[in-house]
Amino acid sequence: MEGMNDLIINNLYNIRNYLDQVVSYVGQIKDQKDILDSFVQTREHLYDIYNDRLDFSIYQGNYFEGLAETVKRMKYSDLQNVKLSVIDGDKKSCSIFSSEDYSIILGIIFYDN
User: Fold this and answer.
1) Four-CA torsion 64, 33, 5, 20, nearest 10 degrees
2) What is the mean pLDDT of residues 81-110?
3) Mean pLDDT computed over 53-62
4) Cβ atoms 68, 50 nearer than 8 A
5) What is the arithmetic mean of pLDDT over 86-98?
6) Which long-range contacts (C-beta less than 8 Å, at least 24 apart) are formed by 7-12?
7) Residue 85 and residue 54: Cα distance in Å, rounded?
8) How far out from the chain centre does Cα 69 lie?
9) Which of 24, 27, 70, 112 is most solvent-facing, going by the fewest CB within 10 Å?
Protein backbone atom coordinates (compact mmCIF):
# COMPACT_ATOMS: atom_id res chain seq x y z
CA MET A 1 0.00 0.00 0.00
CA GLU A 2 1.26 3.43 -0.91
CA GLY A 3 1.93 6.00 1.77
CA MET A 4 0.54 9.52 1.89
CA ASN A 5 3.72 11.01 0.42
CA ASP A 6 3.56 8.59 -2.52
CA LEU A 7 -0.01 9.72 -3.26
CA ILE A 8 1.08 13.36 -3.12
CA ILE A 9 4.04 12.68 -5.43
CA ASN A 10 1.74 10.85 -7.90
CA ASN A 11 -0.73 13.76 -7.81
CA LEU A 12 2.08 16.25 -8.44
CA TYR A 13 3.38 14.09 -11.28
CA ASN A 14 -0.04 14.07 -12.92
CA ILE A 15 -0.28 17.90 -12.88
CA ARG A 16 3.44 18.66 -13.38
CA ASN A 17 2.83 20.42 -16.72
CA TYR A 18 0.16 22.74 -15.27
CA LEU A 19 2.10 24.98 -12.89
CA ASP A 20 -0.99 26.94 -11.86
CA GLN A 21 -2.51 23.66 -10.62
CA VAL A 22 0.77 22.80 -8.87
CA VAL A 23 0.69 26.17 -7.06
CA SER A 24 -2.85 25.41 -5.89
CA TYR A 25 -2.01 21.85 -4.82
CA VAL A 26 1.15 22.83 -2.94
CA GLY A 27 -0.88 25.55 -1.22
CA GLN A 28 -3.15 22.81 0.12
CA ILE A 29 -0.33 20.59 1.44
CA LYS A 30 2.31 23.10 2.54
CA ASP A 31 1.12 23.33 6.14
CA GLN A 32 0.87 19.58 6.73
CA LYS A 33 3.63 18.36 9.00
CA ASP A 34 6.27 15.94 7.77
CA ILE A 35 5.50 16.35 4.06
CA LEU A 36 7.73 19.17 2.80
CA ASP A 37 11.33 19.37 3.94
CA SER A 38 12.45 22.82 2.74
CA PHE A 39 15.30 25.27 2.67
CA VAL A 40 15.97 28.55 0.83
CA GLN A 41 19.03 29.39 -1.26
CA THR A 42 19.84 32.11 -3.75
CA ARG A 43 18.50 31.36 -7.21
CA GLU A 44 21.99 31.69 -8.70
CA HIS A 45 23.41 29.11 -6.28
CA LEU A 46 20.67 26.54 -6.96
CA TYR A 47 20.86 27.24 -10.69
CA ASP A 48 24.62 26.58 -10.71
CA ILE A 49 24.23 23.31 -8.80
CA TYR A 50 21.35 21.96 -10.88
CA ASN A 51 22.76 23.18 -14.20
CA ASP A 52 25.91 21.20 -13.39
CA ARG A 53 23.74 18.18 -12.54
CA LEU A 54 21.92 18.60 -15.85
CA ASP A 55 25.21 18.66 -17.75
CA PHE A 56 26.44 15.62 -15.80
CA SER A 57 23.18 13.70 -16.28
CA ILE A 58 23.30 14.31 -20.04
CA TYR A 59 26.90 13.13 -20.09
CA GLN A 60 26.08 10.05 -18.00
CA GLY A 61 22.87 9.28 -19.88
CA ASN A 62 20.87 9.52 -16.63
CA TYR A 63 17.71 11.55 -16.87
CA PHE A 64 15.69 12.97 -14.03
CA GLU A 65 12.24 13.99 -15.19
CA GLY A 66 11.70 17.74 -14.93
CA LEU A 67 15.38 18.62 -14.46
CA ALA A 68 15.91 20.39 -17.79
CA GLU A 69 12.64 22.36 -17.53
CA THR A 70 13.37 23.40 -13.95
CA VAL A 71 16.92 24.53 -14.77
CA LYS A 72 15.63 26.58 -17.71
CA ARG A 73 12.94 28.27 -15.59
CA MET A 74 15.47 29.00 -12.83
CA LYS A 75 17.81 30.57 -15.38
CA TYR A 76 15.16 33.00 -16.61
CA SER A 77 13.41 33.66 -13.30
CA ASP A 78 13.69 37.01 -11.58
CA LEU A 79 13.40 35.46 -8.10
CA GLN A 80 16.28 36.37 -5.77
CA ASN A 81 15.81 33.29 -3.61
CA VAL A 82 14.35 29.89 -4.38
CA LYS A 83 12.80 27.49 -1.91
CA LEU A 84 13.75 23.88 -2.50
CA SER A 85 11.21 21.50 -0.97
CA VAL A 86 11.65 17.74 -0.99
CA ILE A 87 8.93 15.11 -0.64
CA ASP A 88 10.27 11.63 0.04
CA GLY A 89 8.11 8.68 -0.92
CA ASP A 90 8.66 4.95 -0.78
CA LYS A 91 9.13 4.49 -4.54
CA LYS A 92 9.69 7.99 -5.87
CA SER A 93 10.67 11.34 -4.46
CA CYS A 94 10.48 14.85 -5.84
CA SER A 95 12.07 18.25 -5.40
CA ILE A 96 9.91 21.35 -5.83
CA PHE A 97 11.56 24.65 -6.75
CA SER A 98 9.44 27.66 -5.85
CA SER A 99 9.24 31.17 -4.48
CA GLU A 100 9.52 31.32 -0.70
CA ASP A 101 5.72 31.52 -0.32
CA TYR A 102 5.01 28.85 -2.99
CA SER A 103 3.12 31.39 -5.14
CA ILE A 104 5.49 30.70 -8.05
CA ILE A 105 6.53 27.17 -8.96
CA LEU A 106 9.61 26.99 -11.16
CA GLY A 107 9.52 23.24 -11.55
CA ILE A 108 9.53 19.79 -10.05
CA ILE A 109 12.20 17.13 -10.47
CA PHE A 110 11.07 13.52 -10.02
CA TYR A 111 13.44 10.65 -9.27
CA ASP A 112 13.24 7.00 -8.25
CA ASN A 113 14.43 6.00 -4.80
Assistant:
1) -60
2) 96
3) 80
4) no
5) 95
6) 8/35, 8/87, 8/89, 9/87, 9/89, 9/92, 9/93, 9/94, 9/110, 10/92, 12/87, 12/94, 12/96, 12/108
7) 19
8) 11
9) 112
Annotate 14-80 with DSSP letters as a single string: HTTT-HHHHHHHHHHHTTSTTT-EEEEEEHHHHHHHHHHHHHHHHHHT---BTHHHHHHHHHH---S
pTM of the predicted model, to two decimals?
Answer: 0.92
Please name the amino acid found at residue 73. R
Cβ partners under 8 Å of residue 106, min gap 6: 70, 73, 74, 77, 79, 82, 97, 98
Count of residues making up the chain = 113
Strands 37-42 and 105-112: unpaired
Q: How far apart are CA 95 and CA 22, in angstroms?
A: 13
